[in-house]
Write a structure and sequence with these properties.
alpha+beta, 6-stranded mixed beta sheet, about 525 residues
Length: about 525
C-alpha cells in the first residue's frame, strides 16, 4: 500500500511538472515549489542511504530565507517555543534565579510568590539532585538546568537541597507553574521624584508592567527615564501602547507599508496618563525595532529628549506564518516609518546578512560610538520634527538629541579578558555564596550595604590570585586603569546576588553618564 501511494505521488508530481514546464514563467511559484517537492521525493525514494528528510527540508528553508532581507528567517518547530517565550512574557517552571558555582546549581533568589518560595527554598540553597538523579559535578550547563527545572504547569519535580548549616540533604516537591518573565527588570525613584524604568524587550506584558511599576512606586513622577539601551525590540503593540501614554490624541505614532501590505497608521488615543510628564529615553547601538518606534515618535513630536548613541536601525516588519508541522516562517512584509516619514531601517543587500550585521563593527571602527562628528547623513535623509521643526535624520536608526560617547576609559586587555572568560562573575558568585550570611547580618538592607561596604585591598588581591590560577594576570598599569571599575563591579555583583537585580542596576546607575544626564535634563524641566 505504501509503495502504491508513493508511485501515485510520483505520477502526480511528474504530470504537474510536464504541465507547468509548458508555461514560460521562470518565477512561477508553483513551478519552483514543484521542483522542491520532486527533489525531496527522489531523495526519499532513490537515494543510496536513508536520508533525514525533515532535517534536509529545515536546512533548505534556512538557506532560502537567507536570500531575503536580514530579518526574515525560518524557525524549526523545536525552536518555536524558545523564541516565543520572551515575547509572551512567561514560561512554566519552578521560579528561581540561579548560578552555576563549582559545577553545582546554586539558588541566587526565588521569585516572590513562585513555586519554590512557597515550599521554602531559599537563596544559597544548592540543588544537587533532581528526581533522584545526581546533577552536581556532572558538567552542568544552562540548557540542562532548564531541561530539569522547566516543564508544563501542574507537573511536579523533586529536588534534593544542600543548605548551609544543615547536616543532611533536604527534599522538596515543587509543583511547576507559570513564571513571569518580566520585560521591565529595574525601576526605582531617583532624585527629585524622577522615575527610572529599564525595558529589556517589548513583550505582551510590557505596557502592563510599566503601569504596575509606576503604581508600586506610589508617586506622581516629575519625570521618567525610559532605558532602552540594549533593547532589541519585540511586539509592535507594546511599542504603540507605551508611546500612546506620552502623546496627545490624534498624533501619529508609527506607520507601516509594504508591497502587499497597505499603509497602516497608528494614532495616539489621548488616553495616556503620562502626557504631561517630561520624559527622556536612553538608546544605544543595540536598541532596535520597537525601541526605535517609541524613540522616533517621542522625538518627531518634540515630546521628550533622546540620549545616548545612534540606534541599530531595524525597521522591517515581520509576520510569523505557521507551517503545517509546527514550524514557522518569520517573513518581512513591510517597513516602519516614524511620524515625520523617516525610514528606521539601515541599508542592506538581500542575501548578505553577515555584511549587514558587520555594520555595527564598521560603525565602531569609524568612531561612531565615540564622536558625533564621525556620523554623516546625506541631505536627502534630512527631516523636520513636527512641532519645533528641528532637524532629524532617517536612513537607519534614531540619532539621539544628546550624544553620549561610549566610555572605554577603564578598558584594558586584562579587564576585557576577565569579562570574556566570566572570571569576575564566577568568582563573585562563589564569594557571595560563601559570605551571604555574614553580609546580611551586618547589612540587612541594600541601602545599608551600599553605604557601609567597601571592597578591601585583600578582596582585590584574592580576586587577582584567582585570576592568576586561571592563567589571566594584569600587566603593569592595568590595575591603575581598570581597578576602580573592577571594584565597582565587585560590589555590584554582591548586590545582585544577595539583594536584588533591581538594586544592582540602581547601584551601577549612580555612575552611569547617560542616566545622570537624563536626570539632569528632567530636573531642568521641573
Amino acid at each position: 500500500m505504501k509503495i502504491g501511494r508513493i508511485f501515485l505521488l510520483f505520477v502526480v508530481l511528474t504530470l504537474n511538472s510536464l504541465l507547468l514546464l509548458g508555461q514560460n514563467s521562470r518565477n512561477d511559484v508553483s513551478v519552483q515549489a514543484n521542483k522542491l517537492g520532486q527533489t525531496l521525493f527522489y531523495i526519499n525514494r532513490l537515494y543510496l542511504d536513508t536520508a533525514n528528510i525533515e532535517n534536509i527540508t529545515d536546512q533548505a528553508l534556512v538557506a532560502i530565507m537567507k536570500e531575503l532581507d536580514p530579518h526574515s528567517s525560518y524557525i524549526s518547530k523545536k525552536d518555536i517555543q524558545a523564541m516565543n517565550e520572551p515575547l509572551q512574557g512567561n514560561f512554566d517552571g519552578i521560579g528561581v534565579e540561579f548560578a552555576l558555582i563549582n559545577d553545582t546549581l546554586t539558588i541566587n533568589s526565588t521569585i516572590p510568590g513562585g513555586p519554590s518560595e512557597k515550599v521554602g527554598i531559599k537563596a544559597g540553597d544548592k540543588i544537587v539532585a533532581v528526581d533522584g538523579e545526581v546533577i552536581s559535578g556532572t558538567g552542568l550547563t544552562i540548557e540542562r538546568v532548564h531541561k530539569y527545572l522547566r516543564g508544563p504547569k501542574g507537573t511536579k519535580v523533586t529536588v534534593s537541597i544542600v543548605r548551609r548549616g544543615m547536616p543532611e540533604q533536604m527534599e522538596f516537591v515543587i509543583t511547576r507553574d507559570k513564571i513571569p518573565l518580566n520585560s521591565i527588570d529595574s525601576y526605582y525613584v531617583a532624585e527629585d521624584d524622577i522615575v527610572y524604568l529599564r525595558l529589556t524587550r517589548f513583550s505582551a506584558t510590557s505596557y502592563r508592567e510599566m503601569l504596575e511599576a509606576l503604581s508600586e512606586l506610589g508617586i506622581v513622577p516629575k519625570g521618567i527615564v525610559l532605558d532602552f539601551r540594549g533593547n532589541p525590540g519585540g511586539y509592535l503593540l507594546a511599542a504603540i501602547q507605551i508611546a500612546n501614554e506620552f502623546l496627545d490624541k490624534g498624533q501619529l505614532i508609527v506607520y507601516t507599508e509594504g508591497r502587499s501590505v497597505k499603509r497602516m497608521d497608528e494614532f495616539a488615543t489621548g488616553s495616556g496618563v503620562l502626557k504631561n510628564i517630561p520624559v527622556a529615553i536612553l538608546i544605544d547601538e543595540n536598541s532596535a525595532s520597537a525601541s526605535e518606534i517609541v524613540s522616533g515618535a517621542i522625538q518627531d513630536w518634540d515630546r521628550g529628549v533622546i540620549i545616548g548613541r545612534r540606534s541599530f536601525g531595524k525597521g522591517l516588519v515581520q509576520q510569523q506564518i505557521p507551517l503545517q508541522d509546527g514550524s514557522a516562517l518569520r517573513l518581512t512584509v513591510a517597513r516602519y516609518h516614524t511620524p515625520s516619514g523617516r525610514v528606521i531601517q539601515s541599508p542592506y543587500e538581500e542575501g548578505k546578512k553577515d555584511e549587514y550585521y558587520m555594520n555595527l563593527v564598521e560603525r565602531y571602527n569609524r568612531g561612531e560610538n565615540f564622536s558625533r562628528d564621525s556620523i554623516h547623513f546625506a541631505d536627502s535623509l534630512m527631516f523636520k520634527t513636527l512641532k519645533e521643526g528641528r532637524t532629524v535624520y532617517g536612513g537607519g536608526g534614531i540619532m539621539p538629541d544628546i550624544f553620549i560617547a561610549q566610555d572605554t576609559s577603564h578598558y584594558t586587555p586584562f579587564y576585557g579578558e576577565i569579562l570574556r572568560k566570566g572570571l569576575l562573575t564566577d568568582y563573585m558568585n562563589e564569594y557571595s555564596d560563601k559570605h551571604r550570611s555574614e553580609i546580611l547580618k551586618k547589612y540587612p538592607s541594600f541601602r545599608s550595604f551600599e553605604r557601609g561596604f567597601a571592597v578591601s585591598d585583600k578582596d582585590i588581591a584574592d580576586f587577582l590570585a584567582y585570576c592568576a590560577s586561571k592563567g589571566v594576570e594584569p600587566k603593569e598599569g592595568d590595575m591603575e586603569i581598570s581597578g576602580a571599575e573592577i571594584r565597582r563591579n565587585f560590589k555590584g555583583l554582591i548586590i545582585r546576588s544577595i539583594y536584588s537585580f533591581n538594586n544592582f542596576i540602581e547601584f551601577l546607575n549612580r555612575e552611569d553618564r547617560e542616566v545622570l544626564k537624563a536626570v539632569e535634563v528632567l530636573k531642568g524641566k521641573q
